[in-house]
Amino acid sequence: MTALATLPAPYDADVAAYAAALGAAGITRPAEWVERCVLNTAAGAAGTIDRIVTGPWGPLPRIADLKTGSGADRLSYAVQLAIYANATHMLSLDGQTWEPMPAVDLETALIFHLPAGTGTCEIVEVDIAKGWELVQLCLAVREARKTK
Predict the structure, then answer these.
(1) pLDDT tens digits along 81-112
(2) What mean pLDDT value characterizes the chain?
């Protein structure tokens, strides 16, 4: 019995669609890069990446995020994924120490849009270079607000 066979409907179809989409795109999900806490010292932010993935686009892996809502708006996620991609540190697997963030693509991230219960998965590219520009703008506004 496979793991997919044990999932209740309609989630079995969602997981199958996710696996099929990533397989068709040649994307792999190294286990050591799934659900990892990262720290971005420049932005003063931390978060948990869903995954860092490898694929046919080139030598650098990409940040990827799984979204199960009704829409995958590129701009609304660009800032979040840019902060993750530009992180400086990643919490070790044992959760005890911080290690350097691996080098990742700083231009493009991926959203795996998997609307819950639909049995569909779309891979959406996100311009995180633009997202990082927006992070810089937000940081400048935050700094300006400190001015007396």
Answers:
(1) 999 999 999 999 999 999 999 999 999 999 99
(2) 91
Euclidean distance between CA atoms 81 and 67, whole angstroms: 12
Side chain identity at 87, as an amino acid letter? A
Chain centre distance of CA 82: 9
Tokens of 23: 């397989």
Name the helix (H) or strand (E) containing 140.
Answer: helix 128-144
Q: Are 114 and 68 in contact (CB under 8 A)?
A: yes
Rounded CA-CA distance 1/106 in Å is 40
Instruction: Name the amino acid, one letter, at 86.
Output: N
Rg of the chain in Å (alpha carbons)? 17
Say how far apart CA 48 and CA 34 lie, in whole Å: 9
For 124-138, how does the pLDDT look when each residue is reduced to its tens digit (9 = 90+)? 999 999 999 998 998
Give the bridge partners for 124, in sequence order: 111
Q: CA–CA separation, 65 vs 42, rounded Å?
A: 21
